[in-house]
Amino acid sequence: MFFNNTDKRYNQFSAYLKNKFGAKVYKITLDAGFSCPNRDGTISTGGCIFCDGSGSFSQAHSNLLSIEEQVKTGAETLSKRFKAEKFMAYFQAYTNTYKPVNELEKIYKASLTHPDIVGLSIGTRPDCVDDEKLKLISDISKDYYTWIEYGLQSIHDKTLKKINRGETFDTFLRAYEKTKSYGINTCAHVILGLWETHDEMMQTAQKLAELEIDGVKIHMLCALENTKLAKMYKNKEVDFMSEDEYIQTVCDFLEYLPPKTTIHRLAGNGLKKELIAPRWIGKKLDCLNKIDKELLRRNSHQGYKYKP
Description:
two-stranded antiparallel ribbon; seven-stranded parallel sheet; single chain; globular; about 300 residues; alpha/beta; TIM Barrel
């Protein structure tokens, strides 16, 4: 089974977007100067053990620039480098619903002024949405292809506690159900390698399948400089999956997900200058190719074990 007129055995989001808009759509990562309740003392001051203080931001731009300037700069750079024609504004750094709704409206609308923006993606925490904010995002989705990306990481509360997530799976579930009631596309971020058993990781996949989640972004746990996780690794308190273990687990995970679920990421490479371990994730393309080869070897595909 192949997806989106490609040779991919999973529903690759980038290919899905190309089919939808007739051209490849590139994300412009934006930093609007948001904070996070898990770092500013509202929940705790430590944050998640894997967060390095950049809020999962690619550092492609600086929040010293206005949102309009960040979008303009990003579009120009991607156009020159890849001949890009269409873009999504992507609020990635920290918790991008963590402001009053009147401020959010100005920020989001500022990101949509460029004529080649076709969509909006907002990364946030499940405990930082409410009806007012979802109503705003729902209104935007009438004119732009819009997503909310929630950091779930795992459905297991013991794991969320271990990584100092500051919320429970039930928090995600309530936010997800409310978000879907507003008709907003929803993507869940999942981290593999959180010292869970294989069965526990597959339970996360099976639950997302049961929820018929619109999109999934899969990450490999990694330690970056200036994180609690890096200290734990250096003190030999934790270890990480090997590349082969990760590839096998990703393929198993994909087999449980519904074919209609778009896959926004299967591997990340981190910033090489900040990456402590595991070093193999620095070769993202190599990892993706190995995932393709493993699905081919199995003669398998996303949804192979999915049961509606």
